[in-house]
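Appendix B: complex inputs.
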Amino acid sequence: IKMTHVQVTDEVRQYLRKPTFDNWQWDDSEMLILLRQMYIDLGFIAKFNIEISVLEQWLFEIYRGYNQVPFHNFKHCFMVTQMMYGLTWLLDLPTILDDIDVLILITSAICHDLDHPGYNNAYQINARTELAMRYNDISPLENHHCSKAFEILEKNHANIFRNLPLETFKKVREGMIKCVLATDMAKHSDILNSFKAIIPNKDFTNKEHKSLVMMILMKVSDISNEARPMEVAEPWIDCLLQEFFNQSDVEKLEGLPVAPFMDRDKVTKPSSQIGFIRFVLLPLFAALAEMFPAIEEHLIRPVNWALDYYTKMADAIDGQKMERKE
Ligand SMILES: COc1ccc(NC(=O)[C@H](C)Nc2nc3c(cnn3-c3ccccc3C)c(=O)[nH]2)cc1
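Resulting structure:
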């Protein structure tokens, strides 16, 4: 993929900052150029002495590091990063966090699902896979994603941090490990409750408070497809259910436990999305909105439209069932 001599128009650079950005219009090579543009427009090239040619090699190694699975693929990596990029401007993160924290957030988003196999932690643990053995059932996937990220950075030609002072690199590494490990949904309630506890007396100079804000921003960026326009979000749920159904089919064949929200014989898109929006997304967004009111208009409102859309879809399905009974 040749990225040199390709320019991004000012109009696209502005559009790239919006949560309404539609990934389905762009191919993978264009997304790589947009990720490069994010590092340029955030001023990372100068701030962290990143060479453009190394950035391009790093992005290509990242691209190769994602698998062709239905949901957790390079397009998902792009969407999570683009949401984080949008939040950076919407919440004006460079003023409340340090430059290094914004670098950690964007880089963690890009790396957060590297080499995802399309089978979640429950499968890894139940099937006693190599990853479960290597990480002793402790967030096997997230540990793997983070380890792969630093394997890539060990390659000098692709190490975007190679010009950083050692102390700065160590801070970036510590921050990325926290941010990537925070995307394990098994830790959802712990992280959300810890975050809610600091809201009343938030202090952005407090290291612990900044860590919690960064972990919540990772979680919001990771699972917020439903905050996007329906024509962008809906295909993502189809991809997710395809991946989940593939896993549960394999679990049934292998005699392993099957999670109800993954079982093609039990799940319908509207019912699972209504539950997910009401019990996972809205409480998460409400907590972030307490600290950053702009979340109300740009994330909570679109998600309420999605809830309305799926509720109508579920009612229509129930309606048809009623008619058939009659
Ligand atoms: C607390 O742990 C949980 C909670 C909920 C879910 N997932 C669901 O309830 C269902 C399948 N829906 C769902 N799950 C979603 C979405 C976005 N990311 N995401 C997802 C994907 C992989 C792993 C975990 C999650 C939450 C989404 O829009 N909907 C998965 C794990």
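Residues 185, 188, 223, 225-226, 237, 240, 261, 272-273, 276, 280 surround LUO (CB under 6 Å).
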